[in-house]
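COURSE: Structural Biology Practicum
ASSIGNMENT: Worksheet 4, Part C
STUDENT ID: 0417
INSTRUCTIONS: Below are two proteins. For each, the amino acid sequence is given first, followed by its structure token string. Answer the questions at the end about the second protein only.

PROTEIN I
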Amino acid sequence: MIAQLSLIRPYLAALLLAVGSPAASQAGELNPAAVKATTPDEFKWRDPTDRADTNQTILYGDPTKPGFYVVLNKARAGRFGGPHYHPNDRFITVLSGTWWKGSGTTVDPTHTTRLPTGSFVIDYGQQVHWDGTKEEPISILIVGEGPATNIPVPQSTGSFTALDPKAVGVLLPDQYKWRDPTLAAPTNQAVLHGDPSKPGLYVVVNTYKPGAYSRPHFHPNDGFVTVMKGTLWIGTGAKFDTNNMVAMRTGTFMQHFGKQIHYQGAKEDEVTIVVVGQGPATATPAEEK
């Protein structure tokens, strides 16, 4: 089953990680020792022609080897794969489109489980599952501990009825447990997996309403941020200055380096980001007095 969601203490609101690079839209300057960003037009896809039904770009690590990895997968509409499994758990966020999921060895797209944008999924290690797309393409963010080898299994005949919770865990967007359940707070957070205040892999979703910012702070370990919606503005250094920030548009992937000072927020539009990493991700205030 999906790990128990929990609300973390208010000081972790600053967990909203900020990273950026001169490659992104500029309105200021960033410390390159503190941040690294890759914009969508800089992604290095497995199929650089982008003609394949499915494609992948490795954002961090190497999913074929032991260790933490982050990858982005995308698939064209009307594509389903065969049954398979992976050696270890995989933690997946649907960034765009509607994904469809099944478990077991029978591939039956008619009765798949619908996973809209924002859904969080765990493919449990050693458990058989399959998935695909229908009317629209999708992009999904996948993190985990490698190796993430795809091991196919023979397909059987019959019909699929429901997801096996031992094989696939699902959390839909309307099932998120937000820190502020009224959704009225300027910044908000939902913990999807793990506990970012403790060691171990975590996945959180953070939101910023227009005009909301974190203050300069740092974290003990690297964090990895994907902008899911809106334009995130990033600053580095101990001086809080909204005029010296860099814009990170939707789809940008960012690595924030541990112990480096940063701050971030939203200007004109509401922002949603997915943050993953190895905890603890506690925030230490570092604003210049």
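PROTEIN II
(use this one for the questions)
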Amino acid sequence: MMMVFGIPLPALFGQLVIGLINGSFYAVLSLGFAVIFGLLNIVNFAHGAFYMVGAFSAWMLLNYLGLGYWPALVLAPVIVGCLGMVLERLVISRLYKLDGLYVLLLTFGCTLVIQGGFRIAYGNSGMPYPVPGLLQGGFLLTDTLFLPTYRGWVVLVSVVVCLATWWVIEKTKVGSYLRAATENAAMTEAFGINVPRLLTVTFGVGVGLAALAGVLAAPIYSVNPTMGSELIIVVFAVVVIGGMGSILGSILTGFALGVLEGLTKVFYPEASGIVIFVIMVIVLCVKPAGLFGKSS
């Protein structure tokens, strides 16, 4: 059996796949987090809760309405995005003129309420969600290297969604309106653009990305009320490392740290749970704005 630095190649490849899968979720979640922070300048600590709600939405669409994975892939992000827009318009928008700490505390409180509600309704035990038939099975890359089809699909969707979102924000007229509204809301409104509505839609898109990640995660991980709380701290670290508000930085850092975490599990498993936070500390000491952030 081929060995790499004393590690069997199948074991190394398996951890790379796992790292790439985790990196895909980190990238999509960090992207939504960065969109909200970069364009609305608020820290949405409820992002993990919306990720969990996205997974539960897919589960409920299947078990209550009989709608499978493919409709849920579209409907769940839309549903959760609409819920996010309602939350932004009714509650969060009232705090924009206050210190950002108030919004952070508000969204943290929303996380506790959402998680508590789902825990009361469904308990703490995880509920399975089936892999769609079209994506079952896998591919033998070599005699010993196996790639599950669904995991390859998750990586593909994550890359496409991340690049598409970056392109819309950085290269289109809609994106230019968003950036203009962030930098000078009064002047943007003078051109006839409804800035409050634009900010509401932006928040909805950000949490919709979190919900999409939840739908993608449902067939891999069990659907449970705490699945978001387990990821939000890591996602926050990824965004800080990439640069707060940097769309491209969040995407690249998310994928890279997922792979690095997977490799750490092979060569030094004891450090796999803290490697991302060690990197965050180092980056903040060397470049406080993050790898792709701009110093103020």
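ANSWER KEY EXCERPT:
Q1: The first helix runs from residue 9 to 40.
Q2: The radius of gyration is 20 Å.
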